[in-house]
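Input sequence (930 aa), recorded before submission:
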Amino acid sequence: MKQVGEALQDFMLSSTYKGEIVAIGIAAWGTIHNRNSLICHTGSFPAEYILDEEAQGSLCCLDSNHSHFILVDDGTHGKYGVEIPLRTNLEKYISEQTKVKEGVAIKIPIVCVVLEGGPGTLDTIYNAINNGTPCVIVEGSGRVADVIAQIQDIVRNKQLLTVFREGKDGQQDIDVAILQAMLKASRCHDHFGHENWDYQLKLAVAWNRVDIARSEIFTEDHEWKPFDLHPMMAAALIANKPEFVKLFLEQGIQLKEFVTWDTLIYLYENMATSSVFHGKLQKVLLEEKEHAAISKMPRIQLHHVSQVLRELLGDFTHQLYPKLNNSEKHHLPIVLPQNKVQGVHLQALYKCSAAQAPFSMDPVRDLLIWAIVQNRKELADIFWAQNRDCIAAALACSNMLKELSKEENDTDSSEEMLTLADKYEHRAIGVFTECYRKDEEKAQNLLIRVSDAWGKTTCLQLALEGKNMKFVSHGGVQAFLTRVWWGKLSVDNGICQVILCMLFFPLLYTGIITFRKKRIQPTPGLNRFRAFFTAPVVIFHFNILSYFSFLCLFAFVLMTDFQSTPSWPEYVIYFWLFSLVCEEARQLFCDPDGFGLIKMASLYFSDFWNKLDACAILIFIVGLVCSYTFQQVQEHTDQIWKFQRHDLIEEYNGRPPAPPPFILLNHLQIFVKCVFLQKPTARHKQLKKKFEKNEEAALLSWEMYLKENYLQLQQCQQEQIPEQKIQHITDRVDKLTEMLNLDQGKMMRLLEQRLLHLEEQAFQFAKALKWIVQSLSNSGFGTEEDIPVLVPSRAVETKEQQAEEVSESLFTLSHVSSRNLLYPKSPVIRFPVPDEKVPWETEFDIYNPPFYSSETQEDITPKFPRDNLENLSRINFNSLDGDINRQSFHGTYTVEDGLPLNPMGRTGLRGQGILRYFGPNHALHPVVTR
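Predicted structure, token format:
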């Protein structure tokens, strides 16, 4: 206020203007020093005021250069800013007044000039701008003026500015606003089509906002190549972000291209240090360091991983990853990043390993193992769902988790592993059940198919090694074991029939025994004889008869014929015992899988029946003493019996057909073939089968198809659970609520516009009724006292003000939309204008828009008279030009070179276009609604 007064004083002293300038100051009564001197009960015009600036303190004195003052009193003392509402309303009222000068009606111009200023000045500027009052900020005057000048520079880079309003615009999380701001900033730095999409994706992964990645990054604006996503795929795996892994797989990442030798090494080097698998891997490296007598810890290689995996899966499996020679090793010349989420070093990894061909026959298996050994459930579920050999994979995962849980110190983690192991066993049972329902033969082939991906083992071996009794006791598995037990015989044969044919083998050719394969039925030759006597059930009963015969002979010798010198029955007993020892030796040294003597010995002594031979009585006593064990066995008798049944069937499936002591003939045959004839012995009959590649591929495809059916069935069953239904309904309600919140502002604006329109119509009806009533009254119908009062309410005026604000915002949007390069209904191309160059206040030196005014009205409906260039100089802009209103609802506009400038900014075109008038074109658009 003081600066304005001094400026007026300087103007009056230096100017020849002789008129009176009225300067009105508005201040708060409670902030005026010596305000009591202005109080006069009788009135004082003009009032006398004593200036005392030295003693004013925190108050202020009135400026002597102002001619009038309006002092606002709200009962407070020393509180600034209480006059702002009154000043705002007064300024608005003055600006709406029309003054006629020289026949031209113009509105009183008003402007807000800001010099310095404090907190109250911000409210003054805010109210002025809301009322459409232009503001001039004097930069360099200090305080708030300088702050606002800097804010204007900030707002010019609006792409770097994000306003977060809690609870508005659908924004609920501040982290979303922060991430969106960073994404906007990254787009701004690479403005000319070189967006740093990798950087944006790294931000989204680091913040774990897959929703932002879907909506802001993976759009049509940029086409992602699968190879470009490999570094962030590795980062998402290490950071355990399954949602991003799903997203990357949806974007077309091929795991066969992603999983390389270097990738797996990198993943295992960056696995969780708290996992049990990491500790076991470190032990292997430490043993290799001590064995090689080196000072530096060796780097992790996949054969180290394979060594630990073999401990978890079982020694009967082969190495999953071979040990490479020095010439075959892949070199990885990178330094591992400390921050595992950052993708800079990952990019270098993929640049140096991109030329290497994928080594693994099953990359899905590799990632599944990496996830399962760290107990990462979601990642393991993703990769298991994509695995072709899903039954073997589920059983292998169950075995690994059970072994890791034994060494886990954390009780909660151990229980989670056991729970997850049980889950994968149920998955294996579920998929096998689906397969068994569709085709029993194919399902049983899946049990004995040799899986190269899981160490050349079978599903049945994995289930037995992991003691998955639920899987082994499945009806399909037991049906397979029954089929093996009967060999080539039909399972419909009775035991009595079998024993009868054992005693009188010519009965085989009478049809009393049926065979499983039709081609054996009519064969009268040796095939039927061989098929019967090589069946495990027949071998088992022959051994029982042999054992009882041995016991009877042994009892007879001890009780009746035990002499000082051995008799011939005693020699028979010795011979018989020798045959039994030879059979045990054959079982010990027979190595069909090539495991070696030590491994075969360990497997032999791990067999339950062989242990039973050594300490049967002790184990029996311990089993009876331990009541808990007895209770557990009693509860799961059926599962335990079915599980142990396999060992019996497998043993007699691989035994020579002749019982002791005649079994020595088979042993002699084997000895002669191996030693003298140098011929390989017949393969040990095993419960495994190697299929051809085409047949195996078809079998795995069939398994994967039924796995998808199983997963869909599980999903449907999961959705039927009441808790899941409630959760699903809750999610849908949340989504609907979010959609409503997003559209709430828009809907409220539309509703408010319609209400304003209705209020305006009601106001017009009231005016019309008032005119009708007044006319009837003047014509003698009724008296003036009976005329109802029909005036607009304050609410209507407020709504009209809000309607003006809404119309201005809508006009702003329409102005932006109207700056299309091609002018409508013409071949004229507009001059391109960026958003930041639209305001006239912004310098735009190269702005040179084309001039266009349509000369014909063929494409304009309806036809109307138009302005022309000849009478352009006679047009009175910003006023009433005859019957034409040249005034703009946005205030006074600038006329430059005889042409008016659009008050909303540059449009890229000069001239009239296809409009009716130069300058503002007022139009009414009738809208018929419901």
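Checked by second reader. The CA atoms of residues 281 and 305 lie 7 Å apart.
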